[in-house]
């Protein structure tokens, strides 16, 4: 058997400990699959964890020990911490040191790849350093491998997915238990599915990092996090979920990317998804990614999106590829329009919830404002669920489902409706996902 692949580990948090567990407890099976042993030869962590069995691997608190000497062939980077900026800086520094030292690298760090991959990955390729980052997107789902290998014969047309388990858990809890957002968030925090500061997840940043990576690999373009249109779920309320159900939809937080002559359009936001769509049935902390290729058609990838064991599964799979000396293909990037395809040109149906004053003629004025932009009403709900406003007037929500229209048209229409005397506040607008067209 070939000489062992010597693995150095940076970080002993949830993911790092799970990697140690897999390498030690599954050593013989991994050796058989890789054609050589995967030996843990050094572990570095800012905080010593004497309770963790490292299988005899030396422990240190200095990241530099992973890139000096000859004890390590490949570094697994699982650096975490409450200070996200500091953790990212440490991960980037380790990546650069690994490339300089000729050490291969495996990482689960989505921010590192989405923000700095355009410079780090070419530098690694030039130095003959292999980099695995399967674990950076959707945890236990081998979606990056599917895009770069399994679907290599395809021209990817679009992809759409649930790539943040926290948001999916919250929306599922609101749907199943008819509870409000704050209650569902508190439940997710109690169960360990949401951080004490959940903004990274619920405002869409985490999903946007992942979508930038997915879009880059799917369309052979540079990673472009800054161009991802990003919205979170904190404005969705249980009333929206109930109305969506009446209209035949479920609300999901999706990352959607498509490619056209105008460039890549990548967006993260809540969507109304037809209740009979497969992705509408993906609940809890599960993730799913649907990919449409010109040859294969539509394929769906489903699995756990986070957690120690699923993420370690993806990390160890990358280690096995490196042990087999399987080199990734060169990414020849397309020249694309900077800034991505404009959102104003996006065409989709829309859910509008309008806080209308309870008086005659308001609906007619709303319909007229929509008509001026060429927008027709495909469905509507208006019921006497009166709420007392700050000015003492009563209002009832008017819920409208529009036809498929351009983003710019529906934005102009909603601005005009909000200016009506019979409307008492901001309109809730949620796009409808269309998995039949370019998402």
Descriptive notes:
The structure is a single chain. By secondary structure, the chain is α/β, with parallel strands linked by helices. Helix content is 35%, strand content 25%. The strands form three sheets. Strands 7, 8, 9, 10, 11, 12, 14, 15, 16, 17 and 19 form an eleven-stranded mixed β-sheet that branches. The chain has a six-stranded parallel β-sheet with strand order 3-2-1-4-5-6, with helices on both faces. Strands 13-18 form a two-stranded antiparallel ribbon. α1 packs across α11, α3 runs parallel beside α4 and α4 runs parallel beside α9. The protein is elongated, with a radius of gyration of 24 Å. The mean pLDDT is 93.
Task: Describe the secondary-structure layout.
Blueprint: E1 5-10, H1 14-25, H2 27-34, E2 38-44, E3 59-60, E4 74-77, H3 84-101, E5 104-107, H4 110-126, E6 131-132, H5 143-150, E7 156-162, H6 165-177, H7 181-190, H8 199-202, H9 205-219, E8 229-230, H10 238-246, E9 249-260, E10 263-274, E11 286-293, E12 297-304, H11 308-323, E13 347-348, E14 350-357, H12 362-372, E15 377-382, E16 387-388, E17 394-402, E18 405-406, H13 407-418, E19 428-432
Parallel strand pairs: 1-2, 1-4, 2-3, 4-5, 5-6, 8-10, 10-19
Antiparallel strand pairs: 7-9, 7-11, 9-10, 11-12, 13-18, 14-17, 14-19, 15-17, 16-17
